[in-house]
């Protein structure tokens, strides 16, 4: 699933990916940043049993995401509601372990981000 997501981002958006080591206190470790036209699409943090995707919802995306939110999975709705907004952004940290509604919702969020 991790490889599938990476391939999708590279194929669908021609996204540039950069592997980095983050010393961030809440998600220390290796990650892959995907960018298109200088804008971050998402950051993927591989884990032993799945991975976490960080999608930032900024002022530009907020209205579109909030309009789509009622049609998204309960898990994404909960993550969005529990993520505090700061500087006009919400940093959604979404754990993925299986394909399904949450995975599909992540793709929708990235599409809006683009």
What would you say this structure looks like, in words?
- With 114 residues, the protein is α+β, with helices and mostly antiparallel strands.
- The protein is built from 4 helices and 5 strands, in the order H-E-E-E-E-H-H-E-H.
- The chain has helices at 2-13, 59-68, 74-82, 101-113, and strands at 16-22, 29-36, 39-47, 50-57, 90-96.
- It has a 5-stranded antiparallel sheet.
- It is globular and about 30 Å long.
Give the N-terminus to C-terminus distance in angstroms.
21 Å
Radius of gyration: 13 Å
Low-confidence stretches: none
Helices, by number, come to: 4
* Class by alpha and beta content: alpha+beta
Mean pLDDT, as a whole number? 90
